[in-house]
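By convention, each integer encodes one residue's backbone shape. The lines below illustrate.
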Amino acid sequence: MPEATTHPYVGMWETSDGHVRHELLPNGRYVEARGTRESAYTGRYVVTGDHIDYVDDTGFTADGDFIDGVLHHGGMILRHTS
């Protein structure tokens, strides 16, 4: 079982329209929903400082940055909702 992560970013992050939702789980896994498609993408993530690296279960990689409490990822802005 993966170790729990220790950073303040665990929880749900959403775009302002709620279309894209990233749930950062405490075990280093994430679930991304798009519209009505729950679990559109799943994988693991690593947070280093205010930077996040994603590797989805198919091997695709992406990243983002937390700036002033907002997640900037792939041209999107996501806010922490929980």
Notes: The chain is about 0% helix and 60% strand.
